[in-house]
Amino acid sequence: MWSGRLRLPAVLAVSLLAAAPLAAQSAAPAASTSSTRHDATKPALNDPTIVAIFDAANTADIETGNLAARRAQSADVKALARQMASDHRTVRQQGRDLAAKLHVTPTPPTDHTSAEEHAKVMQRLRTTPAAKFDCAYLEHEVAFHKAVIDAVGTSLMPAIQNADLKSFVQQVAPAFQGHMMAAENLAKKHGCEAPASAQ
Q1: DSSP string, 153-191
Q2: Whole-model pTM?
Q3: Residue 198 DSSP class
Q4: Poorest-pLDDT segment among 64-68, 88-92, 115-119, 125-129
Q5: Residue 107 CB neighbours (<10 A)
Q6: Residues sharing a CB contact under 8 Å with residue 123, sequence separation 6 or more, in sequence order
Q7: Residue 3 to residue 8: CA distance in whole angstroms
Q8: Is the separation of the CB atoms in 46 and 159 below 8 Å?
């Protein structure tokens, strides 16, 4: 077991959790002027921002999957990593095609630090000793996909305005759940300390 696991699921945890207050702000009326003054300076979560966040999440998991396909020690972890990268590549392209069809230009949040966070995760994974890599990767995948699922349910879906975009996110959401469960099951099989998804 590896005690130095990656606790923060990088790209989406930062982007999506940062988006949660934006969605709440858009959905709820202001309680008082003094309590909302700070939030009023943040831009509302909108479809172009959601498309950018979704694209960044898929790109991040493509990159971690590609790395794990090369570095994983176990054949089943390599296979899962290849599948994750392939699935996210497909969904990312579908999202980009939909954005083009809808004439939506992806616009990352202004306080977007996910690229920096993802770079840190990739660096940690690259420098994790080979014997500990499989667990580090699987633990990251469980946490990453849980963050995505939570953010989609609490922040992104309520904020999506376009019916086609909402339908697309609803169609691909079960795949995120499936990825999380697959990573969790492999983590258990390999004796890792993957955080429980509680799903």
Answers
A1: IIIIHHH---HHHHHHHHHHHHHHHHHHHHHHHHHHHTT
A2: 0.78
A3: -
A4: 115-119
A5: 16
A6: none
A7: 14
A8: yes
